[in-house]
Amino acid sequence: MEKFAVFDIDGTLIRWQLYHTVVDKLAKAGQLGEKAQANLHDARMRWKRREPGYSFRDYEIALITTYEDAVTRVRPSVFDALIAGVIGEYKDQVYTYTRDLVTRLKDDDYTLLAISGSHEELVAEIGRHYGFDDWIGTTYEREGDTFTGDKYVASHDKQAALQRLIGKHGLTLEGSYAVGDSKSDAPMLAMVEHPIAFNPDQDLFDLAQANRWPIVVERKNVIYQLDPGSSGSGYDLTQPT
Q1: Global pTM exceeds 0.85
Q2: Which of 69, 150, 204, 209 is most buried, by CB atoms within 10 Å?
Q3: What is the pLDDT of residues 148-160, one digit of tens each?
């Protein structure tokens, strides 16, 4: 049975959110309604100003809601054309730590998996670009040149998604890795031998501390790795491996 490593994509491998970029471009193109672009800008600025009681998650919910409320009016052919431009622009805008970890584990014959809340079409292109073996993203159902409004969101249950891929490929949990940046990644981190909370949000940071998972932070050109201290009293700053 082969070992595996599973990665989140947006904010973990890619430095920004591919899902957000697609929605922004659709809004600017007038595909999501007359007020969509202004509403998304307002939501983003509320988060960037760090307004009390308004978090990145609140901004993200506003963005997803804007997209899903209008998705049946978006032509898949328009969406697909836009996807190509987004991939071309962002595919190489990656974090050094996760990019190098992907390369190292691939060289060590790990099966590489990606599970992401981003659109399946985006995840597939990133997966192919970096030599992943399989992936699961959010699927918005199509009928011809129409989105039906039905969807499957992998990030709602990443444990089930990972179990599905393990069974599909006959993988072993022995020596396995998982890397993610948000609370939705915690269930798959909890499954593996080598969980890594990478640039974690507050919820994942708290869970990583509680479970004594390694925490890695990449800021500008510096990588900080926090490993649980041997005394159990805190985290030690170490060089990343």
Answers
A1: yes
A2: 204
A3: 999 999 889 999 9
